[in-house]
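Our consortium's second objective concerns turning raw sequence data into structural hypotheses that experimental partners can test. To show how far this objective has progressed, the report includes one record in full. It was chosen at random from the queue rather than selected for favorable results. The single chain below, 80 residues long, was entered without modification.
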Amino acid sequence: MSWQPRTMITVNFYLAVSVYLILFIGTLLLVWLLGAKERDKGLSVDERFIWFCEVCSYTYVNTREEHFSVCPRCGSYNKK
């Protein structure tokens, strides 16, 4: 019995590069989405610190517990 070489599988270069890029970009996208989900877990703001400017319609955060606040965009005073 003599040894015979097996035939090689032919792969198109552009197909191989495309598959590699799709897998690489898909992996990066998956890592980014899972990381973004973990980052957003601890992000929360109490509603009493959210202010809405009645003049310029700007929503902003002011952590001081006051009855009046100054809008950082237009400088007008807002009442809670």
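The partners drew two points from this record. The chain has one helix and four strands. Residues 39 and 69 are 30 Å apart (CA to CA). Both points have been shared with the crystallography group to help prioritize constructs.
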